[in-house]
Amino acid sequence: MSTDKTTSLGQTILGRGGLRVSRMGLGTMTFGVETEAAEAHGQLDLFIEHGGTLIDTADGYGAGASEEIIGAWGKARGGMDDLIIATKGRFAPPPGSTGASRRSLVRSIDASLKRLQVEAIDLYYVHGWDKDTDIADTLGALGDLRAAGKLHHVGWSNLSAWQLQKLLAVADRYNLPKPIAVQPQYNLLERGIELELMPCCLEEGIALVPWSPLGGGWLTGKYSADARPVGATRLGEDPARGVEAYDLRNTGRTHAVLKAVSGVATETGRPAAHVALAWLAARPGVSSILLGARTLVQLKDNLAAADLTLTDRQIENLTTASALPALPYPYNFLQDWCDMKIWKRLGT
């Protein structure tokens, strides 16, 4: 289901950094890989027509091609000062230096600035934890890059709660920059961050900016239990693709969640994807959701989800259907655990 109506995406503040962004962001991992430049430029145009301001990329997307496509588009429109540009470093394409060391991050951000054709990165994520680099060195390098005017805010992607707490402690100790946003995988099929990472972010005022909000396409309802995907879809072309691989996610729990999503979709008269996105947008701490699409049509359909608000009952049904397996210790050990303020806010 698509619509010709232009839906406003709204605005929000990322954490405590004062950075104002749209409630939906444009994820660009497909640019230069599954989505050619002309189609990508069309997505960018459509996104800003809907009031989108947050564009998210990484130096590793298409070995730098995604950043180059965005940079060329930005130059053609006369700049991107009205937008928030986020990129990531950690898995730099050759001849970059992989890792979160000072050498790697300095080289990576200089290359990203050149490809994006901007003077500074608005939000620079470390793309994942680096066990081989002292976190104080990583944060120190980010602080120096910020002082040099090459980035404005720091974020982190793909990390655990203990890693986040460790880097916050080091940042406090040495007065180094803290992340204003964390970018994890989060959707109705993957709620693991609710155990520790989400409560940590809520406690510290750090925004959540989820990737894979539709579970790699599973939450659109296009994959079934008894038919392996084929054709021009992500899993049709690569059934073993990452965390959303067909055999990994083709489980009873997944199809129970999909049934609940389908029920709410029928009630609202909206596509399953809209329901999954509306549920995620209502979760505690979620500031902006990254929409990634192969085609302009897919992006248009997903942007139309911005005006859907689910009822409390519908949210509760989806939350219950997708609840994490019981973990008696330590999470449910205390008799009054479910009465704790944060746990109530998580809705589990």
SSE order and pairing:
Layout: E1 11-14, E2 19-22, E3 24-27, H1 37-49, E4 54-56, H2 65-76, E5 84-89, H3 102-116, E6 121-126, H4 135-147, E7 151-157, H5 161-174, E8 179-183, H6 197-204, E9 207-208, H7 234-237, H8 246-249, H9 252-268, H10 272-281, E10 289-292, H11 296-303, H12 312-321, H13 341-346
Parallel strand pairs: 3-4, 3-10, 4-5, 5-6, 6-7, 7-8, 8-9
Antiparallel strand pairs: 1-2
Helix pairs in contact: 1-11, 2-3, 9-10, 9-12
Describe this entry's structure for a reader.
Helix 3 (102-116) links the parallel strand 5 and strand 6. The protein is built from 13 helices and ten strands. Helix 9 (252-268) packs across helix 10 (272-281). By secondary structure, it is α/β, with parallel strands linked by helices. The radius of gyration is 20 Å and the shape is globular. It has helices at 37-49, 65-76, 102-116, 135-147, 161-174, 197-204, 234-237, 246-249, 252-268, 272-281, 296-303, 312-321, 341-346, and strands spanning 11-14, 19-22, 24-27, 54-56, 84-89, 121-126, 151-157, 179-183, 207-208, 289-292. It has a single domain, classed as NADP-dependent oxidoreductase domain (TIM Barrel), CATH 3.20.20. The strands form two sheets. It has an eight-stranded parallel beta sheet with strand order 9-8-7-6-5-4-3-10. Strands 1-2 form a two-stranded antiparallel ribbon.
